[in-house]
Structures are given as structure tokens and as C-alpha cells.
Design brief:
Elements: H1 2-22, E1 26-39, E2 43-56, E3 62-78, E4 87-105, E5 111-124, E6 127-128, H2 134-139, E7 144-146, E8 149-163, E9 168-179, E10 194-205
Antiparallel strand pairs: 1-2, 1-10, 2-3, 3-4, 4-5, 5-8, 6-7, 8-9, 9-10
Length: 206
């Protein structure tokens, strides 16, 4: 009986580290991110950059995430109702996001899907263009289409981790990204919601 009890204790002692290994408490993500930005006035842009995130899981399924991203704008595309006119315009600008919020992951198996809602802020740098461009010079004589601005931001979406080994996974995720920058078509500087999309792929370290 005593031997059986000791065997049970030994089995439990071996099982606890195994469970901890199967259920990582932290993960670190880094990779490429694409943002489809939709501005007011029928103006759109494709932004490329990168994002990183760190997550802590107090429980098996519930985690807290800190997320940071940086993106670069190189072209603005506008429709016929835009003040820029219909077509594409070479431009330069940056966008940074810093977000935090809860994540729910569904298991910690070979394939682990998750959903999350993140809240925080965004910073947009000056969007500029060359005044030698006729379209740009017709809108602004300085080359600055919009000044830098800080705004509220949030994302809602999820993704999936595909485990490659004990400590490495590949992640793909897609999210709705909402920002509240100033309306570029408003003369009063009123804020409006920009409904954007963000897609990210990269590596996760456990």
C-alpha cells in the first residue's frame, strides 16, 4: 500500500512539469503585418510593416496581450469623390499602434485558435507628397497632406497558432482595426472612425 502511494506521488510529480510544458504561460510573437487603411473622402492606402506581441496566460485559456505595430504608407488611392481626384498618388507616412487587452485561446494542441480584443492608441505621422506632383500641388502647396495625430485605436479578431516544436509556432491572424483620427475632409478637425483591416503572419516563441 505504501509503495502504491509513493508511486502515485511520483507520477503526480512527473505529470506537473509535463502539464506546464503543454500549457505555456507566456508567448512572444513577431512578424509581418499588412494594414488596409480606409480614410474619409474615398481615400485608401495599403500599409506594410511589422508587429510584435507578448502574452501572459494566468489560466489555460485566458491571457492578457500587449501588442505593438509600425507601418509605412507609400501610396494613396482615391475615388472620384475624393479631394485628391480619382487615381493613385505617391505619398509617404507612418502609423504606429500600441494596444492591450484579453485573449481567449481554445486549447494548447498542435493547432491552437484564439480570439482577442485589444484597446489603446495609434500615432500617425505627417502624410506628405511631392509638390512637383500636379495632384498634390492642387491640394497643398507645402506637400503636407495631413499633420501628425494621435488617436484611440482598437482591434477585434483572432488567429491560429500551428505548433512546429515545443518552443516554436507559426501564427496567422486577421483583425478589424478601428482608429479615431481627425476627418481629413473636415474643416473643423472633427474626429471620425476609420474602419481598417490588419493581417499578420510570423513566428511565436513559447
Amino acid at each position: 500500500m505504501r509503495k502504491a502511494a509513493w508511486l502515485c506521488v511520483l507520477a503526480l510529480a512527473l505529470a506537473v512539469p509535463a502539464m506546464a510544458q503543454d500549457e505555456p504561460r507566456f508567448d512572444l510573437f513577431g512578424g509581418y503585418s499588412y494594414v488596409r487603411a480606409d480614410f474619409q473622402g474615398d481615400i485608401h492606402s495599403n500599409l506594410n510593416g511589422g508587429s510584435g506581441a507578448v502574452a501572459f496566460y494566468p489560466t489555460k485559456h485566458i491571457g492578457v496581450v500587449g501588442d505593438f505595430g509600425g507601418y509605412h504608407l507609400s501610396t494613396l488611392t482615391s475615388g472620384s469623390s475624393s479631394p485628391l481626384g480619382s487615381g493613385s498618388l505617391a505619398a509617404s507616412g507612418t502609423l504606429f499602434t500600441y494596444l492591450v487587452g484579453p485573449r481567449v485561446r481554445f486549447g494548447v494542441e498542435k493547432v491552437t485558435p484564439f480570439v482577442q480584443a485589444l484597446f489603446g492608441g495609434a500615432h500617425a505621422g505627417d502624410i506628405t507628397c511631392s509638390t512637383s506632383n500636379l495632384t498634390c500641388s492642387s491640394v497643398t502647396s507645402t506637400g503636407k497632406l495631413t499633420p501628425s495625430d494621435n488617436a484611440f485605436a482598437m482591434t477585434l479578431g483572432g488567429g491560429v497558432d500551428l505548433k512546429l516544436s515545443t518552443h516554436f509556432s507559426v501564427r496567422g491572424q486577421g483583425e478589424y482595426l478601428m482608429t479615431r483620427f481627425k476627418d481629413i475632409t473636415s474643416s473643423t478637425g472633427a474626429r471620425a472612425s476609420q474602419n481598417n483591416a490588419r493581417i499578420s503572419v510570423g513566428i511565436v516563441l513559447h
